[in-house]
Amino acid sequence: MPKLSKFARKHRVLCLGVILVLLLGTVLLHLTPVADIHAALTRPPFVARHGACDSERVASRGDAARVVVATFVETLRDGNVRERYRAALCLGAMGAAAGEAVPALIDAVHDGAQVETLEYDYFSFSTVGEAAIEALGHIGTAAALPLLSLQGDADPAIRSAAFEALSRIHTDAEAGAPFFSQALDSRLPQERLAAVRLIGGYLPAARGVVADLERAMGDTDSGVRAAAARALGRIAQEDLPVAVPLLIDALADDDDAVREASVIAFRSFHRRYQHNERIAEIGPDQVDILSASIASDSPEIRRRALWIVKAIGPSAEGAMPAVIAALDDQDVRVRSAAIRALYRFPEHTRRASPILLELLTDPRTSRHVSIVLYENGVDVRQAVPALTGALAHPSPEVRWNAAHVIRRLGSNAHAAGEALIGLLSDEESSVRFHAARALQRVPANPTHAVPALMRLMAESDAQTRTEIAQALGQFGRGALAAAPLLTEALGDDRDNLRHMAAWALGQIGFDRNLVRDLAGFFGSEGHRAFAISEDGQSWGWSAGNDHGDEAVSRAVADCQQAATGTCRVYAVDDDVLWSDDEWRALMR
Questions:
Q1: Predicted structure pTM score
Q2: Beta 567-572 vs 575-576: how paired, if at all?
Q3: Between the CA of residue 240 and those of 235, 500, 524, what are the distances in Å?
Q4: Which residues, 6+ apart, have CB-to-CB distance to 287 below 8 Å?
Q5: How many CB atoms lie within 10 A of CB 523?
Q6: What is the SS3 assignment for 88-117?
Q7: Among the listed ranges 152-161, 195-204, 377-386, 482-491, which one has the minimum average pLDDT value?
Q8: By the 8 A CB rule, do 143 and 105 touch?
Q9: Which letter does DSSP use for residue 565 in this model?
């Protein structure tokens, strides 16, 4: 037997009278006058304790179900408060079999008679009307449109309860869509609004729903249009080509709420589909609307319209004059949105370089400018002097954003090299970090840069030391003095730093096999030692020894096997014994 619904199970005890009658046989049921059934169903406490509705059994008996439904409908209309309450609950327990009772239940929705809850009741609805709405939600699709009509009721409690009942009926979006589509043709704006809200609540991804929302976007009621715009923010990805032009058109709506709803909806679905290179194509009419919206009196509309331009990308290129004009907007949020919109338009970014370089020196917009300029490029002749000047700005955020853009320019920004070296001793760690990153690509005097990088490496966190190691490697043999720091970094517990230190040592000129064995040495446990010959052509090491002396003797012996000169101990355990001069002598 199929599993009973939760509602039906909880009311089997409450309404068992009809089942007892049906168990006597269909013949006995037909011989029993309806009045007698009514009397049996409404005689307390029999009804409350034993009930009369098992939805599967009653529904399977056709004519018997209709007789029982008619009995409950009569009770719902003419019984006392307790009887009406029970009749509503039992009709709900019958589910779809009670479809013919929907009109009577709708009539009972406004029955505000209070019901005294008894100790053996499973549910405790306050009024007969609440029980009637609950029953409608369990009857199913036959009650969908009548429940929608309740969205126009003056009582907010009834509207809320009806909405909850509808949400239980149509958990299947495909099954619910036709009912709400039909409700959009209602003459009452309240019903149309309720339908659109329900579509937005749990049907927006259903097939064909976007056509209903498109229809609702042309509704004469602004509340319906606004609700439809919000619902479009949750449509399926394949419906974006239809939804995007609709939302842009809504920016030209006469109602502020509709315009605001459209941009909020656009943001909603763009968050879900932002990985798309291009959300949708738009035509000249939508471009004109976007341009006009960017010039709107509302800062919020201007900001969101610019955000939409960024999301749409190349097909919104016609709005670029308005975007560039918005770089001078009085509202900083609008300026930031205009900067971000340029992200999708590299050519226009380069044309707007003079304005963007000015905005780089504003801490409120500096970060957005640095990202756009880094990704899209900038006119070098204009940028290098401006960026070099920005490295001395009082705001640390401006300084590190300028360093970030200079890194993008690479060798073209060699004039900024000395200024970057100066930032390696900046009081702000983020500035020091980005200066070190920029020196990975920007040429600088190693005589000045290497000592500054070494000082910073000795006192920085692991992430910054990794960036510094890469910067040192760019100087090749000019960074020889940093060899001790880099070899010690081979023993760090962070993979990125170890790998970058090994790469930098290779760039400086160390034999790659030597670097590999040094990394193995620093990563070993137990007493260990590493020895290197005077000419640097031979080395040996030992790890896992019981004593330090034992490790040293084995390392030296291993080195001496192939050495032509004397092998000297480079390190024992965690102590590096060589001086900087010994490193220089090794690499001469």
A1: 0.63
A2: antiparallel
A3: 7, 45, 57
A4: 316, 318, 319
A5: 14
A6: HHHHHHCHHHHHHHHHHHHHHCCCCCECCC
A7: 195-204
A8: yes
A9: S
The dihedral of CA 80, 86, 87, 92: what is its sign?
A: positive
Residue 529 β-bridge partners: 542, 572
Residue in 158, 22, 155, 140 with CA at minimum distance from that of residue 91: 140
Count Cα neighbours of 424 within 13 Å in the Cβ-side half-sphere: 29
Residue 14 has pLDDT above 50, yes or no: no
Q: How far apart are CA 515 and CA 510, in angstroms?
A: 7
d(C-alpha 530, C-alpha 552), whole Å: 7
CA atoms within 13 A on the CB side of 584: 6
Tens-digit pLDDT profile for residues 98-125: 889 999 999 999 998 888 765 444 456 6
In DSSP notation, 408-425 reads HHGGGGGGGHHHHHHHTT
CB atoms inside a 10 Å sphere around CB 367: 17
Tens digits of residue pLDDT in 346-356: 999 988 999 99
The C-alpha atoms of residue 168 and residue 42 are separated, in whole angstroms, by: 29
Q: For the chain, count helices (H), then strands (E).
A: 36, 4
Peptide bond into 284 cis (omega under 30): no
Output the six-digit token pair for 239: 């419906």
- Residue from 107, 124, 106 nearest 14 by CA: 124
Q: Residue type for 519, please?
A: A
Would you say residue 17 has pLDDT above 80?
no
Sheet containing strand 527-533, strands side by side:
539-545, 527-533, 567-572, 575-576
pLDDT digits (tens, 9 = 90+) for 409-442: 988 899 999 999 999 999 999 999 999 999 999 9
How far apart, in whole angstroms, are the C-alpha atoms of residue 95 and residue 58? 10
